[in-house]
Amino acid sequence: MTTLRLSVDRERCVGAGMCALTAPEVFDQDDDEGLVVLLEAEPSPADRTAAKMAAGVCPSGAITVNDPDSSAT
Predict the structure, then answer these.
(1) Which residues pair with 64 in a beta bridge?
(2) This prediction's pTM
(3) Digit-coded pLDDT (tens) for 5-59
(4) What secondary structure does DSSP assign to the chain, as a single string?
(5) What are phi and psi of 28, to 5 degrees?
């Protein structure tokens, strides 16, 4: 299993909080602006599915998932 890597674009974030609700072990929101905070850039195998779901529900597309396992061969 290869490493799943996440990144966030705080400039693009609108503070909806869907990421923190979907994957609280991986994402949080800061207290000042309510913007995304990445807690785990390389989520554990147990948190991978939730992290991918969080990226999918982000209304602004501020979360990027680099998952070499999902690349077409």
Answers:
(1) 7
(2) 0.89
(3) 999 999 999 999 999 999 999 999 999 999 999 999 999 999 999 999 999 999 9
(4) -PPPEEEE-TTT-----HHHHH-TTTEEE-TTT--EEES-SS--GGGHHHHHHHHHH-TT--EEEE-GGGS--
(5) -145, 180
| Contact indicator for 65, 52 with CB cutoff of 8 Å | yes
The verdict on domain 5-60 having CATH code 3.40.50.150 is no
Structure tokens at 9: 């674009």
Residue 69, pLDDT above cutoff 90: no
Residue in the structure block whose two tokens are 């800061």: 30
